[in-house]
Design goal:
The protein has about 350 residues and is of the alpha/beta class. Helices cover about 35% and strands about 20% of the residues. The longest helix is centred in the N-terminal third of the chain and has 16 residues. The protein is globular. The two termini are about 20 Å apart. The structure holds magnesium ion (MG). Magnesium ion binds next to loops.
Length: about 350
C-alpha cells in the first residue's frame, strides 16, 4: 500500500467569544478546526483532527511511502523539524496513520497501541470566566453531569486565584479531585511558591505550569520546595527528549504531552514519552481533549485522567463527531466501538463552514 495524497479540510464556526488568563488576547467568536485525510492507492484513508499545516512539506514526506511504516515516517519527520514547518504537522500525520492502521485491521487505535483500560475518568478543564460566581456555576454544571475532577484555568491574580481555589474546595468537599493550571503565569519564584502552598492547603492534586516553561532552574527549585506535584512541559518543544531532560533536571513530577501538540510527535511521540516517564515511575498526563488524546490515555499505564475541555461547545467543531465529548454519568470517557479513532464527519456541515482545503 502507498500513500497517494493528503487533504486538509479547514472549517470555521461561531463558537462564541472566550478568553484565557489576564494578558492574553481574548479569542473572538469564530473558532477554526481542521481534518487531515491521508489517502492511499487502495482507497483506505486515515483521519486526524488538525490545524493549518504546510501541505507541501507534508506531501514531500508522505507521498509514495507505505502508511504502515509509521516509525520510519516519524523518524524522517522528526529529523526535519529543525529546518521545516513540520512541527505543527507531525502530530496529526502520525495520528492519521494510526487511524488508517485501525481501519485496516478493524480495531480501535487504543487496542492497537495496547489497551490499559476501556474507559478513563475525565476531568472538566475550564475556560477562564469573569467572576468567582461564574466558576461556581460552571463547577455545579459539570459536577451534576457526573465529573469527579475539575481543573481550573483562571486569571493569574495571586490573591483572587487563591480565593477561587478555596471557594471551589469548599463547594466540592474532599472527594472531588482538583487541579490548577497557571499557564506559566507566575514568573517570580516567591509568587509561584506562595501559590503552590495555597494549593497544598486545599489539597489540590497537581499544580500545572507554575512559571515559564523554559525556566527549568526555577521549576526544579519549586519542585524541591513544594509537596504538591508539578505538571510541566505542556508547551515545550522536543517531545520525548525534552521530557527526559525535564525529568533529569528535577523540573517537575508529572510530564504533560499531547498527540496533537506541536513538536510532541502524535501517538508515537506520546507513547515514547509515556514510557520514559514510566521508567522514572512518574505520571505522563495527556494535554488536550480531542479523540487521539482519549485513545492515548487509554493505553498509558501511568496516566489517570482524560482532559475534557469545558464548556464542550467551545472546542469541538459540530461537523466532526467522535467520542471525546461524551462523558457518562459517572464522569468517564470511553471510545466508540469503531475502527481507528471512530471519527464521523457531516460533510454538508463541512461544506457550509469551509474556509479552504489544502491538498
Ligand atoms: Mg495546561
Amino acid at each position: 500500500m502507498k500513500i497517494t495524497g493528503v487533504k486538509v479540510h479547514l472549517v470555521e464556526w461561531n463558537r462564541g467569544p472566550y478568553h484565557w488568563r489576564d494578558g492574553i488576547k481574548p479569542n473572538g467568536p469564530l473558532a477554526q478546526a481542521g481534518l487531515m485525510r491521508i489517502l492511499t492507492d487502495d482507497g483506505l484513508e486515515g483521519w486526524s483532527p488538525c490545524g493549518a499545516v504546510d501541505i507541501e512539506e507534508v506531501k514531500y514526506q508522505l507521498i509514495g511511502q507505505d502508511p504502515l511504516d509509521r516509525e520510519l515516517i516519524w523518524q524522517n519527520m522528526w529529523r526535519n523539524l529543525r529546518t521545516s514547518n513540520l512541527g505543527q504537522a507531525i502530530g496529526p500525520v502520525d495520528c492519521a496513520l494510526w487511524d488508517l492502521f485501525g481501519k485496516m485491521s478493524g480495531l480501535p487505535v487504543y487496542k492497537l497501541i495496547g489497551a490499559m483500560r476501556d474507559r478513563i475518568p475525565a476531568y472538566a478543564s475550564t475556560v477562564t470566566v469573569d467572576s468567582l460566581q461564574e466558576y461556581m456555576d460552571l463547577a455545579d454544571t459539570y459536577l451534576e453531569k457526573g465529573y469527579k475532577a475539575i481543573k481550573l484555568h483562571a486569571w493569574g491574580r495571586l490573591q483572587q486565584d487563591a480565593e477561587l481555589c478555596r471557594e471551589l474546595r469548599k463547594k466540592t468537599g474532599d472527594d472531588i479531585v482538583l487541579m490548577y493550571d497557571a499557564s506559566s503565569m507566575f514568573n517570580l519564584y516567591e509568587d509561584a511558591v506562595w501559590f503552590g502552598h495555597r494549593l497544598e492547603e486545599q489539597n489540590f492534586f497537581w499544580y500545572e505550569e507554575p512559571i515559564d516553561h523554559f525556566n527549568m532552574t526555577v521549576l526544579a527549585r519549586l519542585a524541591a520546595e513544594l509537596k504538591i506535584p508539578l505538571a510541566i512541559a505542556e508547551a515545550t518543544h522536543g517531545g520525548p527528549w525534552d521530557a527526559l531532560a525535564q525529568i533529569r533536571a528535577g523540573a517537575g513530577d508529572i510530564i504533560l504531552t499531547g498527540p496533537l501538540d506541536p513538536y510532541k510527535g502524535g501517538i508515537t511521540g506520546v507513547m515514547k514519552t509515556a514510557h520514559i516517564c514510566e521508567g522514572y515511575g512518574i505520571m505522563c498526563a495527556i494535554h488536550g481533549g480531542a479523540i487521539p488524546h482519549l485513545h492515548a490515555a487509554l493505553a498509558i499505564y501511568n496516566t489517570k485522567f482524560f482532559e475534557r475541555l469545558v464548556p464542550e461547545t467551545y472546542y469541538s467543531a459540530p461537523g466532526f463527531m467522535d467520542a471525546s465529548t461524551e462523558i457518562d454519568s459517572e464522569g468517564f470517557a470511553r471510545p466508540w466501538d469503531k475502527p481507528g479513532f471512530g471519527i464521523e464527519v457531516d460533510w454538508e456541515w463541512v461544506k457550509k463552514h469551509s474556509i479552504g482545503t489544502l491538498e
